[in-house]
Structure formats: structure tokens, C-alpha cells
Design brief:
Structural class: alpha+beta
Strand content: 25-35%
Order of helices and strands: EEEEHHHEHEHE
Bound molecules: magnesium ion
Largest sheet: 5 strands, mixed
Strand order of the largest sheet: 4-1-7-5-6
Length: 167
């Protein structure tokens, strides 16, 4: 029997407003506006969580972390750690994750390395398995007008066949 591979994909978007910190991939970005939300609204972590849960068919972020007082103001890196713990408990390893942030005036490149290292530490993999990139929509749509930002994530999980352990 061969190793099992499972792919997951996800998307998240939040509104950009004044008076909120901008946290992406667990890193605070220097910005006059931040993402609005029940938690710290880190769309990179939210998309990653949903992609991981989706790949393992374990539901979604809203099911695991409902909009209750318990999760108000939560750090999304903590939510990611909890979601990964649940996925890992099913025997999965993370082959890689690829995240794309879509925003008009937020430059990701200067922070990408720090985000990748932060996320890799939470997911207990080498930073070489995690990609974070940014793009814009050339002023089109809500990201282009600066009303919000979105993130996409794709992950590949691997579950070694029973009785075989990975180096
Ligand atoms: Mg979200």
C-alpha cells in the first residue's frame, strides 16, 4: 500500500479598517490599516487552517473556532497550532503549503521570510516547505480599492502507509 496524499485548498477575506493592527502569517506588518475580525483576522493563518482541515476532511475553521467569546481576540497562530494538532492526530504530515495574499497596498515580500519561518515553526516543518507570496489585482475589485484583503492557501498532506515511518 502506498502513502496517502491529500490536497486542501482555502480562501479567506476580511475588511481593512483604520485602528487595527495588520497581522499576516503571524507577523505584524507596518500599515495604517489592519484587518477587521473576531480574532486578529490573520487571513493567511485562516486560509491555512481551512486548507489543512479541508485536506483531512475535518470540517472548517468556523466549526472548530465558532464566533463565541472564547475565541474573541484570539491569535490566529494559536488557532493554527490547534488545527494542526487535530490534523496531525489523524497521522498526517505536511508536505508543503503555498499561500498567496491578495492586497493592493500591502507589500508581502519584505515580510515573507519571517512569515514562512513563523508558520513553519508552528507546523513543525522546515521553512522550505512553506511559501508565502503577495500579489495585487491591479486596482480591480475590493482588494484593488483597498477595502479588504484576501488570502488563498493550498496544502498537501501525506499519510505514510501503516508500519512505515518517514526519515
Ligand atoms: Mg477569517
Amino acid at each position: 500500500m502506498a502513502d496517502e496524499h491529500r490536497v486542501g485548498t482555502a480562501f479567506d477575506a476580511h475588511r481593512l479598517v483604520a485602528g487595527r493592527p495588520l497581522v499576516l502569517g503571524g507577523i505584524e506588518i507596518d500599515s495604517p490599516v489592519g484587518l477587521e475580525g473576531h480574532s486578529d483576522a490573520d487571513i493567511v493563518c485562516h486560509a491555512l487552517i481551512d486548507a489543512l482541515l479541508g485536506a483531512a476532511a475535518l470540517g472548517d475553521i468556523g466549526g472548530m473556532f465558532p464566533g463565541t467569546a472564547e475565541w474573541e481576540g484570539a491569535r490566529s497562530t494559536d488557532l493554527l497550532a490547534l488545527a494542526w494538532e487535530r490534523v496531525r492526530a489523524e497521522g498526517y504530515e505536511l508536505a508543503n503549503a503555498d499561500c498567496v495574499v491578495v492586497a493592493q497596498d500591502v507589500r508581502i515580500a519584505p515580510y515573507a521570510r519571517a512569515m514562512r519561518e513563523r508558520l513553519a515553526a508552528i507546523l513543525a516543518v522546515d521553512a522550505g516547505r512553506i511559501s508565502v507570496r503577495g500579489t495585487s489585482t491591479d486596482h480591480l475589485g475590493f482588494p484593488g480599492r483597498g477595502e479588504g484583503a484576501m488570502a488563498h492557501a493550498v496544502v498537501l498532506l501525506r499519510r505514510p502507509e501503516p508500519g512505515r515511518t518517514r526519515a
